[in-house]
Amino acid sequence: MEASSSKKRRVAEEGRVFQEKWCEMYFFTCVNQKPVCLICNEAVAVMKEFKVKRHYESKHSKMDKYVGEARAEKCAELKGHLANQQLFFVKRQIENELCTKASYIVAEKIASQSKAFSDGEFIKECMEAVVQIICPEKSRIFTQVSLSRSTITRRVEDIAENLAMSLKKTAGDFVFFSVALDESTDITDTAQLAVFIRGVSANFEVT
After folding, report:
1. Which domain of life is it from (predicted)?
2. DSSP states of 20-38 as a string?
3. Spatial distance between the Cα atoms of 127 and 129, rounded to a whole number of angstroms
4. Same domain, 58 and 94
5. How many helices and strands (H and E) does the chain possess?
6. Are strands 174-185 and 34-37 parallel, antiparallel or unpaired?
7. Whole-number pLDDT of residue 7
8. For residues 124-154, b (16+ Cβ closer than 10 Å) or e, as one string?
9. Any idea what DSSP says for residue 206?
10. Both 60 and 94 in a single domain?
11. Is the dihedral of CA 161, 165, 168, 173 positive or negative?
């Protein structure tokens, strides 16, 4: 009985593992532990051969015209197309992350120098002008860096919130601390309150 149960488990486990033969048989590959059709890029929810086979037969039976070496070549061609698509999306994702990071860095510079948030748009114009001269092939990436007034405002708010949370966490470890307050009014006669805190942790770290 135990041997029979063990054999059934092995068969069940094999049924949930992608089989390389499915590539030429059904034009499928495995992406993130899911079987994905190389023809339409549709993923099948369950790693079962009958699911993969049903997808192929119901949607891509015309591919039966490829047999033998021609079928193997077609499979390799489709896998190459998928790899190029994945590389393209990864590259774009990296570019988007870099553009966002650059936007935050410029926002931090603007805020630290008490410049107008609208200056971000002028800075972008300068960046694009320089790029067109030095490395025009990179101009598309630089145009994606968002430095509009509304974007800079959001970035500064995010930075301020992050700093406040970091300071709150650090202040919780203070053994000794001092606080200073300074109140003033801006040009619109609106009251502004600045709070300064200085503290020492148990490890004699001064903040």
Report:
1. Eukaryota
2. THHHHHH-EEEETTEEEET
3. 5
4. no
5. 7, 4
6. unpaired
7. 52
8. beebeeebeeeeeeeeeebeebbbeeebbee
9. B
10. no
11. negative
- Residue 12 reports pLDDT greater than 50: no
Domains identified in the chain, total number: 2
- Tell me: do 101 and 149 sit in the same domain: yes
Per residue in 70-117, pLDDT (tens digit) is 988 888 889 889 888 888 888 889 999 999 999 999 999 999 999 999
Q: Two tokens at 184?
A: 């003033």
Tokens 């063990």: give the residue: 6
Residue of 167 and 9 predicted with greater confidence: 167
> What's the token pair of residue 44?
């099948």
Determine the 3-state secondary structure of 12 from DSSP. Answer: helix
Rounded-to-integer distance, Cα 148 and Cα 179, Å: 36
- Collect all residues with Cβ–Cβ distance below 8 Å to 184 and sequence separation of at least 6: 191, 192, 194
Residues spanned by the domain of 115: 88-156
What span, in angstroms and rounded, lies between the C-alpha atoms of 144 and 100?
A: 9
Looking at the predicted structure, is the pLDDT value of residue 192 above 60?
Answer: yes
Residue 174: predicted pLDDT: 87
Neighbour tally for 174: CB within 10 Å: 17
